[in-house]
Write a structure and sequence with these properties.
heterodimer; A: 3 domains; ten-stranded mixed beta sheet; elongated; B: two-stranded antiparallel sheet; 3 helices; 34% helix
């Protein structure tokens, strides 16, 4: 039995404009409840919406970054439903004629192109807080915040592909600076549409829509869970129902929210807003001011910094990390050293702590300072790693850490020779071995010196001096 | 042609309670209205742009600037609600 999984995604992203989609209320995250509201976003009678120019510009930018066709003429529609998250009785969205269509993202890793059906602009809803005492408290600060909804074609077939797509999408939107794309804060939300087919036997499950996914990991896990649920039902001669399900992270399962009927939204044209005209000149202008996107940055990193492709890929996955790298190499003239440190100890640390680079005490200045200490032989590479750990924990500068903890490498010859003599006097056997031509004996003796210096001796210098000393004893 | 079921469905979606009598009356009226409007479908509209407004928009887009003057005080926002708590509109729990 061979099942094929079919996955499409719907992604909502809040745009980082100053004001809301259709009114001049501030689009600042949070704030005291119901203090970012006006007659328009509260849907008071007689209030008229006016479209935010920057929100349209951001939608066009996103469309261009996702290889979409930009419609010079589109329109807004009212999507009707009864729920208190919006007061008007409808959400202003785009149904028939969205602003962008027919884009794609290439997933080179799996040799697949995921098509984007459309991107449309709409408004976010208010936030509902359900209390334990059985009430719902409503805050309309978020009502009317500009959103774009990105709808893919059902071109993905595994959780991993969905994850790859989302990684690339998020990186591009972040590079564009149109959204801060934080899933845990809700500025990026992803719904999954999934079903499975068995072409040989002509079996097909009904599509489930999964909501409440608050991390990319959750998207992957929910897809795996649903694949199995659909398979089990089909294999038992049953089928799924057309439904909306909610991901429950605590139990790792999806739970039925509601069955889906046919079109329930009674869309009508939003007559209070005219045709949304975006002229060619404006599109051209936006195109000319597009920031560098991940793929372009990657090529440039390979060319300008002579980095291997893999390193360039890792460093440009995330805009902050790429900026961090570029700023650091301005301060220290060693492209590969910086890249190795960032990709090694730095990334490991931020992954372990689930942080973004900008959320740690490490700055390009501090990393450059640390690497310069290593290059100047003030500390060894290993001590450098230790200093970096302390830096992450305390936020102190590398110089301060080295000084406070007495980590400077000992390059003072007299001090080193004293240690070397001590070790030689305690290891007669090794000296004989050395005389007998066993090179390993030298390594052992140097190791002993490093040990009594607690890693602070300059290893090259110890080796050099040890050899001199042993040869003079011959 | 519009059926009783269509009317029931739209009424449900619009949260309007209709009796059998209401539905019968609606059916007659709606059928008549729709037939009248459908006459428009005979006009040839090839190459005609959809018309969303009969007047020219005064200003197409709004600049992305906060308009402090239009933002309401919280007291004004909540003035028409029956129940409020901590500055929120308070409702019975409506988990979906």
């Amino acid at each position: 039995m061979s099942f094929k999984t079919i996955i499409g995604l719907e992604i909502h992203t809040e745009l980082m404009t100053e004001t809301k989609m259709f009114c001049g209320c501030t689009n600042e995250f949070g704030g005291d409840a119901n203090t970012h509201c006006c007659p328009v976003c509260l849907g008071l009678p007689g209030a008229l919406p006016r479209i935010n120019e920057t929100a349209i510009e951001y939608a066009v930018k996103s469309g261009l970054a996702l290889n979409c066709k930009i419609n010079t003429s589109s329109q807004t529609d009212r999507k009707h439903y009864f729920y208190v998250d919006l007061t008007k009785g409808y959400q202003t969205s785009q149904a028939e004629r969205p602003i962008c269509e027919e884009g794609f993202i290439e997933l080179e890793e799996v040799g697949k192109k995921v098509r984007i059906e459309r991107i449309h602009v709409e408004e976010d809803t208010g936030k509902l807080n359900h209390t334990e005492t059985g009430e719902t408290l409503v805050d309309y600060n978020r009502a009317g915040v500009p959103l774009i909804e990105i709808v893919t074609r059902p071109d993905m077939s595994t959780g991993e592909e969905a994850r790859l797509f989302l990684d690339k999408l998020r990186a591009r939107l972040k590079y564009l600076e149109v959204s801060d794309v934080r899933m845990e804060q809700g500025s990026l939300r992803c719904d999954v549409n999934i079903n499975i087919v068995d072409e040989e036997r002509g079996l097909k499950s009904n599509i489930s829509e999964i909501k409440n996914l608050n991390s990319f990991r959750a998207v992957e896990k929910a897809i795996e869970f649903e694949e199995n649920r659909h398979k089990e039902l089909l294999e038992a001669g049953k089928n799924t129902i057309k439904e909306t399900r909610r991901w429950d992270e605590s139990v790792g399962e999806t739970i039925l929210m509601r069955e889906k009927g046919d079109s329930q939204y009674r869309f009508i044209t939003e007559g209070d807003i005219g045709v949304l005209n975006v002229d060619e000149k404006w599109i051209e202008d936006i195109k000319n001011h597009m920031p560098e996107l991940p793929a372009e940055k990657k090529s440039r990193f390979i060319k300008d910094f002579s980095l291997p492709e893999y390193d360039a890929e890792v460093l440009t996955q995330n805009k902050e990390l790429a900026n961090f790298y570029e700023k650091t190499v301005e301060l220290i003239d060693d492209y590969s050293m910086v890249s190795n440190w960032i990709m090694g100890d730095v990334l490991r640390r931020i992954k372990d702590e689930e942080l973004e680079i900008e959320e740690t005490p490490l700055t390009p200045n501090l990393l450059a300072e640390l690497l310069n200490l290593i290059k100047a032989n003030t500390i060894s590479n290993n001590v450098g790693k230790k200093v970096l750990r302390t830096l992450f924990e305390t936020g102190k500068s590398p110089k301060q850490i080295v000084e406070e903890e007495g980590l400077s490498q000992i390059s003072n010859e007299d001090e080193l020779i004293e240690m070397i003599e001590k070790i030689i006097s305690e290891n007669e056997q090794s000296i004989e071995d050395y005389r007998a031509g066993k090179d390993r004996a030298l390594g052992f003796l140097v190791g002993q010196v490093m040990k009594i210096s607690r890693g602070k001796a300059n290893p090259q210098l110890v080796s050099e001096k040890m050899k001199e000393k042993l040869d003079s004893l011959k | 042609m519009i059926s009783k079921e269509d009317i029931k469905k739209v009424a449900d979606l619009s949260m309007i309670n209709l009796s059998e009598q209401d539905i019968k009356c609606m059916e007659e009226k709606l059928v008549e209205s729709i037939q009248r409007v459908e006459i428009l479908g005979q006009a040839n509209t090839d190459g005609v742009e959809p018309l969303l407004q009969v007047h020219e928009p005064i200003e197409e887009f709004r600049k992305d600037l906060v308009e402090v003057d239009y933002i309401l005080d919280r007291e004004e926002v909540l003035v028409n609600t029956k129940e409020q708590q901590y500055g929120y509109f308070k409702l019975l729990n409506i988990m979906d």
